[in-house]
Amino acid sequence: MDRRHLIRLAGLAAGGTLLSACNESSAAIHAGHGPHPGGGTGDPSTPPVPFTVPLPVPPVLRPSAVVGGTDVYDLSVRSTTTEILPGVRTPVLGYNGRFVGPTIRARRGRPAIVRLNNGLHHPTNVHLHGASVAAASDGHPMDVVEPGCLRTYHYPNRQQGATLWYHDHSHHMEAEHVYRGLHGFYLIDDDAERRFGLPTGRYDIPIMLRDARIAADGTLAFDPADPFVQQITLANGKPQPVLRVAARRYRLRLLNGAIQRNFQLSLTGADMIQVATDGGLLPAPVPRTELALSPGERAEIVVDFRRSPIGSRLVLADTTGPVLAFDVVGAAADNSRLPAKLRPLPPLPRATAVRDVTLSRRPGQATFTINGEVFDAARVDARIPIGTTEIWRVTNVDVDFPIDHSLHLHLVQFRVLDRDGVPPAPGEAGLKDTVAVPPGSTVRIQATFTGFKGRYVYHCHYLRHSQLGQMAQFEVV
What we know:
The protein has helices at about 5-20, 175-180, 465; strands spanning about 65, 70-85, 90-95, 100-105, 110-120, 125-130, 150-155, 160-165, 185-190, 205-210, 230-235, 240, 240-245, 250-255, 265, 270-275, 280-290, 290-295, 300-305, 315-320, 320-330, 355-360, 370, 380-385, 390-395, 405-410, 415-420, 430, 435, 440-450, 455-460, 470-475. Helices cover about 5% and strands about 40% of the residues. The protein is mainly beta. The chain has three helices and 32 strands. A seven-stranded mixed beta sheet has the order 12-11-10-14-19-16-17, with no helix packed on it. Strands 23-22-25-30-27-28 form a six-stranded mixed beta sheet, with no helix packed on it. Strands 1, 2, 3, 5 and 7 form a five-stranded mixed beta sheet that branches. The chain starts with a helix and ends with a strand.
């Protein structure tokens, strides 16, 4: 990059720094905020008949500028309304005014800058979930953007191709902000994947799964004391939609974007072939009859609709009912393929430390802990020398009153070594950044802490648990 480009890039970053100077102390996030639009009143609205609403595909965000090989994207956070139920306007929060934010398609090895403009009346921020980034651009829960301010985030995109996502991470508000719509896809395209011939372009579709409860007044109901009662399953922000497909292969990038719900997915009429986990491609395709996703987890599948007659309907369902339908409407050319081998996993380095991480709820309290402690921004729970490898034994001790938990590590991808001493199933053997930990179970994971020094968090990705204290900090030194 020449000197002129460096000066222009520095100017973009400085603009964010200057505007962010209007921020008050990060402690402002603990101050009381007024109610969000739409507390939810009246009995729940009636969902539409399944498979009558088309599945939208979030639009790809184009760079606002390109400076010396760095793509610059602008995201504004604002209140808006959207049509979740047909004919009903619902107040939501959105990146660039969209209930599922625009998709950013970055390229491996090509840096990106995201400029976040906070148009809300309360603090927010953005965390790029699954990314290896400097601490200043990680979206730490206490590092917020005040109303009317701009923050510049730098994403180097050095990691291999993967389905990532971005979402709000402002502490004490993360669950409600994500529930109300502050989420979107960030896909890292990798030129090295082209040789595999997987479906691309319009046949490569990100699908965010989540749920919602819409009150009779059309507002999103959010009850902090009862986050479990959600009556509508959404795919890309629409209730039980339908996607018209051609009789060919599709690559579907599935994300559980819910704040409190697991998905146990099955597909009638076709095979689900899993090709990737959170951190990218698996060593080989894995046939799946069922696919479990806890909040924050991703899985990529290839579905071959060539075996389905034109005019047929295939249904992706959860244990609670239908999620999404695929209507096979015609033929299409298909040059894609599904090779027997994909990306091999690198050998595991020797671990230099073993840590125990215990996830639990304090009896009789709406408080969740890691190793018996609630989150304290002034406390560092682990100091880790850069470049070292650690094994973490993660245990969910909530057995008497069973509660599901998960663990998400910022900065790094990890490998699942075993569950209760049993090696992971092939579909969980790839690179991960979020792992489900059911009641009474222990999951061992291994991570190498490299790339950047600084302070990061790890937490349960049931965001209500994180919001209520189930979060801790590690510092790479």
